Amino acid sequence: MILDINLYINGEWLDSYDHKTMPIINPATEEVIGRVAVCHRKNLDDALVAAQSGFDTWRVVSSFDRSQLMKKAALLLRERVDHISSIMSIEQGKPFIQAKAEILSATNIIDWFASEAVRAYGQVIPPRNISTQQLTICEPVGPVAAFTPWNFPINQIIRKLCAAISAGCSIIIKGPEETPASPAELIKVFHDAGIPPGVVNLVFGVPSEISNHLIKSPVIKKVSFTGSVSVGKEIASLAGKYMKRVTMELGGHAPVIICEDAEINVVVEQMIVAKFRNSGQVCIAPTRFLVHEKIYDLFKLKLVDAIKELKVGPSDNEGNNIGPLIHKKALTRVHSLVEDALVNGASLVLGGNRLNKRGFFYEPTVLEDLPHQAKILHEEPFGPIILLIRFKSLDDAILEANSLPYGLAAYAYSYDSRNIMKISNNVKCGMLAINHVGLALPELPFGGIGESGYGTEGGSEALACYLDKKLVSLQAC
Ligand code: NAD
Question: How far is residue 398 from each of residues 307, 392, 411, measured CA to CA in Å?
Fold first, then answer.
């Protein structure tokens, strides 16, 4: 398969003005499987003009009609799920079944936002003076610039795209250059569903050049970014300089508190899936496993047995559960974090190396006895790494869970209501799952606190992030 991905601007697929491209690499084979256009500044200017005219068109389409178009797009995406899953699986490396699950969940997200589009209600506020009427009206904020990463090539886009267009905004998406083909297929779905030219635009290129150019433009009224904390800070400060509204969905370092009374088999079964999905390249992946000392050894034994059952390898083999990391840089980064921990005195329970074959594969790895100075305790590994940490009292576990500046997802297992109350009242995070996993449903708020960002990408609050509230106060003459 050779992929040849262009820019989608004003309803057309276009080459870059200077015909520049960059390679698309299959992370399981390290082979070049296609090329993606690198947009020129003039392409970005075209995209800005398109987004402004798309906004002028779209904001006056009724929310009912916007919703109908989105439902059509969801149907088309469902029809094409197998084709797009194959493409995603090859360019991103995740097993086909995980790609398919991602795309089916995207169809649910589209449907949910389509239903929410018609509920962008304002308020009527009782006046002090009865000859006055006071109301608030929700209006789309304007053209949006969105920056999305490669770990969920479609779902990272769909949350921003749906929130924007259901609110009546247009959008320029800077998609992931590592995995551009499945996003292009997603945009084709909206094109075929009849989205007017300029409402949705997709560009690729040099990320910092694109964000600098778009955020500075007076056309752009809202910025949404998903990615690392360090890049998020740069983009947030640029957006602040130009007073743009911002949603930031950044990294985390999720703790899992496993209490003495936890059902170990259930924890292992659920955490194996949550940890190794997408090779651990998931912002809400559990990483710091805080285990009560009384069950630590048994838990470790069962965890290791379960991990040994997992198969690492290319996504085209149906038996494999763990694919490669996205690129060489990710592989080097993950391995250097593991090496740093070991040099500093951590113990290796399992894994700890790249696979001895082509492709950016890393073994599922478990570390324990981590010294405080190990970088991996503080930096998000974004790979298939579990850190085992023993605790004596729940207070200690909560202290450890809250010890980092991030606060995205957290997990806990206990059937004791006192533990559950204490955990839900004291763990600092944006999303907490107790005795199960399942945080990413479209109707639920999705976002973090602290250095994990602000704003939400799910639930009715996600739509509010793309709406301005206007107060209208009327007095009868
Ligand atoms: P990164 O932040 O460098 O890149 C993430 C995405 O942001 C990429 O698709 C990239 O194209 C884009 N990007 C980078 N610099 C940009 C800029 N100046 N302007 C606009 N877009 C820009 O991260 P990475 O090296 O690809 O991944 C490693 C780290 O990123 C991980 O440790 C993890 O913390 C984080 N990450 C988080 C998520 C998430 O879902 N929250 C997703 C991907 C990566």
Answer: 26, 11, 11
260 is catalytic: no
Over residues 413-430, the pLDDT tens digits come to: 999 999 999 999 999 999
**Which atom of ligand 1 sits closest to the CA of residue 329?**
25
This prediction's pTM: 0.96
How many helices (H) and strands (E) the chain has is answered by 14, 23
Contacts of 103 (CB under 8 A, 6+ apart): 77, 81, 84, 85, 88, 154
Summarised one tens digit per residue, pLDDT across range 128-176 is 999 999 999 999 999 999 999 999 999 999 999 999 999 999 999 999 9
Q: Is the beta carbon of 446 within 6 A of some atom in ligand 1?
A: no
289 φ, ψ (degrees, to nearest 5): -90, 105
Cβ-in-10-Å burial (0-12, 13-18, 19+) of 1 comes to: exposed
User: Do the strands 449-450 and 31-37 form a parallel or antiparallel pair, or are they unpaired?
Assistant: unpaired
Containing H/E element for 186? helix 181-193
Regarding the beta carbon of 207 and ligand 1, being less than 6 Å apart is answered yes
Q: How far apart are CA 393 and CA 401, in angstroms?
A: 13
- 22 forms beta bridges with 36
Give the residue, by CA position, lying nearest to ligand 1 atom 17: 208
Integer distance in angstroms from the first to the last C-alpha of the chain?
70
Q: Which residue among 148, 154, 172, 228 has the greatest number of ligand 1 atoms within 8 angstroms of its CB, and so is best to mutate?
A: 228
Do 62 and 207 contact (CB within 8 A), yes or no? no
Active-site annotation holder among 138, 259, 283, 465: 283
Distance set, CA 199 to CA 66, 162, 378 (Å): 11, 12, 40
Instruction: Determine which residue's CA is closest to atom 24 belonging to ligand 1.
Output: 228
Active site includes 169? no
Q: Which of 191, 174, 162 is nearest to 443 (CA)?
A: 162
